[in-house]
Amino acid sequence: MKNEINRFNEALVTNPEMMEQVKSFGSSVEKIVAYANEKGYIFTIEELKAAANEEIELSEDDLESVAGGANGNVGRNQNSPWGVGNEPRPLIGII
Question: Which pTM does this prediction carry?
């Protein structure tokens, strides 16, 4: 179900109304998953938690920036307030 979680994350990045709704749930994983399921993104609480705990791999450019003393935005997806790496991952800061 990782694909469903990725699809949901992408929808959050491109749909500000959905993002605001999810933000309103705070850190309630149960509410976030219920909302996602209602919108047709089918995954469980356990699957979401597992996806959030996955190790995020940095690209060679990210690693070079870290070694060079970058400004702290290394690895962050600039399209998402909580994104990391190259994938939109807005749920990272919530769960």
Answer: 0.61
Query: Which pLDDT tens digit goes with each residue over 48-64?
Result: 888 887 756 666 766 66
Q: Using the structure block, give the residue that is written with the tokens 């970058």.
A: 70
Say yes or no to pLDDT of 67 above 70: no
How many angstroms separate the CA atoms of 34 and 41, rounded?
9
How far is the C-alpha of 51 from the C-alpha of 15, rounded, in Å? 21
pLDDT at residue 41 is higher than 90: yes
Written as one string, the DSSP assignment of 38-59 is HTT----HHHHHHHHHSPPPPP
Query: Which amino acid, residue 57?
Result: E
Counting Cα atoms < 13 Å in the Cβ hemisphere of 52 gives: 17
Residue 57, C-beta contacts closer than 8 angstroms, at least 6 positions apart: 85
